[in-house]
Every structure is written in C-alpha cells, then in structure tokens.
Amino acid sequence: MKTIGVDFRSGGPDSTVPTGRCIIAVTPDAQRTMNTFLGISTQLAFADLDEGLIASGAILYLEGYLFDRDEAKDAFRKAAAVAHAHGRVVSLTLSDSFCVDRHRADFQALVRDEIDLLFANEDELKSLYETTDFDEAVQLLRRDCHIAAVTRSEKGSVVVTRDDVHTIPAAPVSNVVDTTGAGDLFAAGFLRGLTQGKDLTSCARIGAIAAAEVISHVGPRPLVSLVSLLPDDLA
C-alpha cells in the first residue's frame, strides 16, 4: 500500500482480537458471495481516529460495513463533525444492503444530517428507503442528501442532486469475470475526479472506467494504471 502512496495508519497490532478476513466465492456468472469475519474492525471507536488527518484530508470516506456497534456510529458522527469543522467533504458508502437493513433508521439519520456525498448500489438504496421502486428511492434520496452516486450494474449509474438526476452509461466490458471490487473502484474513480475539480458527470464516467477494469479479471485490485485508461478529457 505504501508503494502506491497510501499512508496506512492502523494504530498498531492488538493480539486480543483477530484480524478481519473474508472468503469470496465467485460463480461462473461473475457474481460474488462474501463470507466475512470483520474481526477487530468491529471495535472501531473515535479514539482510534487521527483528528489531524481527518482535518487535513479533502474528503472523508466512511465505510458502512463498520457501522454496527454504537461506538462505531459515534465515531462516524464525530469524524464527520471534525471534517465539516475544517470545510471538508464527508462521503459514505452504504456497503451492504443487509447492514442497511440492520441499522436503517441510524443510516437514514446519518445520511440526512452528516453526509455530503453518498455512494450506494441499487439494492442498498432500495433497502435504505424500504421500497422496491428505484425511482421512488431516488426521489426520497433527493430530499435527504446533497449528492449521491448510485450504481446499477450494466445499467450504469445515476448521479442524484437536489435539483437533477443524471444517468451515466456503464463503460463497455468485453468479458465480465469477477464483480468483486466494482463498487469500491467506482467510488475511487468518482472521488479522484472530484478532487481534480471535475463535474459530477465526469466523476461518474471515471468511476465507470475504473469499475470496468476491475470486473474484467479475477481479484479486486487493478492490473493496470487506471489513469492510463482515461480519455484526455478525464485525465
């Protein structure tokens, strides 16, 4: 991680609780099923966070998988408060529809009160608002969140704002092999565009290109430089 410029501050090892791990089973249709043990990550608390790092980063990215315990929920809100106090953008990915089901009211309050930019897939968004109708979920989302990017697999994505909804097509993929990491890479590309000052549609296009690369092979890590895949208007 360090070789690609990631400053990973884990706080040091703790021998009392195991490290999280995940077994991912990928079926021939490229869909994946995750058997996850979150391990020590479930113990996340605000004391584990570096307030100076949050204050200095352009965007705070919160991972919904960690939103189970009350201490973690408190950490999310306090981290968002630190970021906002320093004029930073706070983003959240819902991560998993089952997690949303378990904590729907708390997620709704977090999105409404603290989140500037929400990432979700179609199923997670429907779960958030307890509806089977995607368009209804989008309208409710416009009420609660300033900006959201919602992925819809081969249908592409939609960028939702208070005033409008933009549809962005998926980037073409000749052979989908493994969908593991598609949402993460979409978010990474979107945030890269945002930090580069791109408009929201361009951000979603970058996200689509990044996601297309990672689903074209086994494993969630890109095999090429994603920047090299961008056309001139997005680079």
From TrEMBL:
Domain Carbohydrate kinase PfkB: 2-221
Transmembrane parts of this sequence: none
Keyword annotations of the record: Kinase, Transferase
GO molecular function: kinase activity
InterPro entries: Carb_kinase_PfkB-like (IPR052700), Carboh/pur_kinase_PfkB_CS (IPR002173), PfkB_dom (IPR011611), Ribokinase-like (IPR029056)
Pfam name, any one: PfkB
Family: Belongs to the carbohydrate kinase PfkB family.
Protein name: Unannotated protein
